[in-house]
Amino acid sequence: MDAGDSELVLRCLWGDRAAFDPLYRAHAGRVKTYFLRCGFPEAFADDLTQDVFVRVLKSLHTFNPARGTFRQWLAAVTRNVARRRWERRADPESFDPELAEETLATYDNPGAASEEGERMNALGECVRALPPDLARLVRLRYVEGRTTRGIAAAVRMAEATVRLRLAEATDMLRRCMKSKGLID
Amino acid sequence: MNEENEQARDPAEGLLRRWGAEEAARRAEVPDPTVPMRWIGRPPARWRWLLHAAALLFFILGASLFVAVATGWLPDRPFGAPSPSDDSAVSGLRAELKQATEDVRASRSALEAARRRVEEQNREFQAEVARLRRTFETEKADLAAEAERRAAALNKLVGQEQSLRETAVGQLKQRDARLARLGQDLAQAGRSLAELRGQVAAQAARLQEAEDGLVTVRRDAEKRISAIQAQQAAMRTSLEQTYLAATPGEDALGMYQSAVRRRRLIVRCQHLRAQVPNEATRRLLDTLEVLLTRLELMQAGGGDLTSLVRLIRTLGLTRQINEVILTGEEEPDVRAWLMETQLLLKGVERAG
Q: Quick check: B55 pLDDT over 70?
């Protein structure tokens, strides 16, 4: 995948317009997810995503493959853009910055291998097997990257209740993961 | 935050975080790209002169417009624009007032909605607190019961361990005592073995000495036996010449009667009889004395010799004499007398 990125970058540098679209499609989703998990509103996250790729393409000639992969370079650009607009976040207390950073960390070490993909699919089955209310809490926590306070505000529950329900859901998921051999 | 860091070290938590990131990236709706690709690289050379011409044209037009306005050739206001008046100002203020009134009304309704939401959340909070208290009490009771059960199990295990330990200590002491006894027995057996080895060596030495003595005794005995056998052989030869050399007939009878008298067999028998302890031997001596007396009284030319020979053979006297001699229990004088008598009887049998 990284070799594909390098090829697309090279084609962009040579003026190949068709190479930009797959590069954008491959990475824009994760960049937007990072902004959403940082607490930016969705419309603004779209603008920031566009901004990131404008910057990427403007400074594409400064990318040095010897200093890291394209994905790591893109992650650095994304963090810089977010830092410049940090005060524009709508509700910072509702989103967990560690989980936001997890998006780019995972991005540095993508689960592209087939084994990792199978593990993710199995875990998705476990989440889908949860009761709907617990599955919603799990998605708010781990997919949207919300804090306990953010989840409580979204579902109109007390934070203590959210913690208890999340602990219950995590226990159920841990049992499911053990049964599927995902963890020891 | 510390709690969340603790969770991050949990493998399940890490897996969930990775899954969430992947799921979010997969589900993100990406806007269409708006980046103009002409920003990338340089425009083709055949269009570069056109860009330069367009820039020059825009510059000329801008400069002309500035000069026209500055020289009054063009008005400084757009053509046909109405000038402001008092009516328009009042109508504008009214519109602003109306807008402000609507904003205040909207704010009030929003405030009311927020108050209702706060009250509703307060009720939910109270209900949640009550539920949490019940859960806490239940958990507390369960934990107390579990603690009591585990304490009882622990006490039971401690008791079992103490019993097992005492049993093991007792068995250990018994084994130590048994080992000590076995050690003493082993030492005693070692000492006994040494003593036995000494005794065996002494016995072997004594046996060797006895064997050496026996060898000497046997050699002496063999020498004596050889001497006795030689003496007996000489005696037997002499006696056979005395008692068996005669020819059958009356001369033989006279010779045997003479031999009885010359050897004083009857007189010696009477003396020897007192020395014989064995009753059967004494009876044999009595029979032989009678037989010798009858031989001495026998007349020459009579027919008694034949009946005497028959009597000797019927009684098996030579055989009985042989048996007494071979037992070796009698005195040498007795054995010598018996041997002489046997030879005499054999001569009588031959003469008869």
A: yes
Assigned token pair, B349:
């049998």
B20 neighbourhood in chain A, CB within 8 Å: 99, 102, 139, 141-143, 145
Position B37 confidence tier, pLDDT thresholds 50, 70, 90: very low
pLDDT at A1: 45
- The answer on pLDDT for B195 being more than 90 is yes
Mutate to test the interface with B, among A1, A123, A179, A183 (most CBs of B within 10 A): A123
For B19, the closest of A29, A107, A123 (CB atoms) is: A123
Facing residue for B20 by CB, picked from A17, A142, A174 = A142
- Give the bridge partners for A95, in sequence order: A146
Condensed to tens digits (0 to 9), the pLDDT of residues B12-24 reads: 888 899 899 888 8
Q: pTM of this prediction? A: 0.41
Residue B301 lies in a domain: yes
Q: Which of B10, B25, B29 is nearest to A143 (CA)?
A: B25
**DSSP output for chain A:** -HHHHHHHHHHHHTT-GGGHHHHHHHHHHHHHHHHHHHT--HHHHHHHHHHHHHHHHHTGGG--GGGS-HHHHHHHHHHHHHHHTGGG-S-GGGB-HHHHHHHHHHHHS---SHHHHHHHHHHHHHHHTS-HHHHHHHIIIIIS-B-HHHHHHHHT--HHHHHHHHHHHHHHHHHHHHHTTS--
Residues 135-164 of A with CB under 8 A from B: 138-139, 141-145, 156-158, 160-161, 164
The tally of domains found in chain B comes to 1
Range of the domain at B298: 246-351
**Residue B84 is assigned to a structural domain of this protein:** no
Query: Is residue B274 a part of any domain in this protein?
Result: yes
Q: Which domains does chain A have, with CATH numbers?
A: 2-90+99-108 (1.10.1740.10), 114-179 (1.10.10.10)
Contact check, Cβ <8 Å, A145/B24: yes
Query: pLDDT-based confidence at B42, cuts 50/70/90?
Result: very low
Question: How high is the pLDDT of residue B38?
Answer: 47
Contacts of A93 (CB under 8 A, 6+ apart): A147, A149, A150
Let me know if residue B71 belongs to a domain: no
Nearest CA in chain A to B27: A29
Of the candidates B15, B25, B37, which has its C-beta nearest A103's C-beta? B25
Q: How many angstroms separate the CA of residue A128 from the nearest CA in chain B?
A: 13
- What is the percent of chain B with per-residue pLDDT over 70, rounded to a whole number? 81
Between B170 and A109, where is the model more confident?
B170
Instruction: Tell me if B125 and A158 make a contact (CB, 8 A cut-off).
Output: yes
CA A67 to chain B, closest CA, distance in angstroms equals: 22
Chain A interface test: which of B27, B37, B125 (most A C-beta within 10 Å): B37
| pLDDT tens string B263-308 | 788 888 988 888 888 898 999 999 999 988 888 887 765 567 788 8
